[in-house]
Design goal:
181 residues, alpha+beta, eight-stranded antiparallel sheet
Length: 181
């Protein structure tokens, strides 16, 4: 795949992901849509997990992490926390796909089989769009800023999320990626 084609595929994917997330935040109360929850296949392309909800990794996660952490810690009312975070996510958080790194994040239980894997294939599909992304998997260390950002983001929707949860980073191999577009 040429560098130009690879760059275009990557840009189309992140544009689509941001669009899906804007719609989910503004019209569906933040519920993940099917295109945000890829099927997970192992390296041999056998289904490894049914689906996984992935997050986009901000290039500068400190601001969103601080906001989410503050909201979760501030209120004992999960509904209030959710509503304030939803307004934040609706306000333009997903407006610019270039504010996100070229990696996806997922929060999984500490003992999840995927946490011990080094590679997988993520298959995204919704409507007329589909993308197949072979990825390298890496568990983020406790000190990684995107780990904290992902945990606090998920605590907006699941206040009982334990500190022991793993945050996995998926780095797409754009040379081997594909799309139906």
């Amino acid at each position: 795949m040429s560098k130009s084609a690879k760059r275009q595929l990557k840009q189309r994917f992140y544009d689509w992901q941001c669009q899906l997330r804007q719609i989910a935040m503004r019209e569906d109360g933040g519920r993940p849509s099917p295109g945000m929850c890829p099927r997970v296949l192992n390296a041999a392309r056998a289904e490894s997990t049914n689906t996984l909800t992935v997050l986009l990794a901000p290039k500068e996660p400190q601001e969103s992490m601080a906001f989410f952490r503050f909201q979760v810690m501030k209120s004992a009312d999960p509904r209030e926390t959710y509503e304030k975070a939803l307004r934040y996510l609706q306000s333009g958080y997903y407006k610019d796909p270039n504010q996100f790194e070229d990696r996806l994040l997922a929060v999984v239980p500490a003992d999840a089989p995927l946490a011990g894997s080094s590679q997988c294939v993520l298959e995204f599909s919704q409507g007329r769009h589909s993308f197949t992304l072979p990825c390298k998997i890496k568990a983020l260390k406790e000190t990684h800023p995107n780990r904290a950002a992902a945990l606090w983001h998920n605590r907006i929707f699941n206040p009982a999320l334990p500190d022991s949860a793993q945050v996995l980073a998926f780095k797409p191999d754009w040379d081997a990626a594909g799309s139906n577009l």
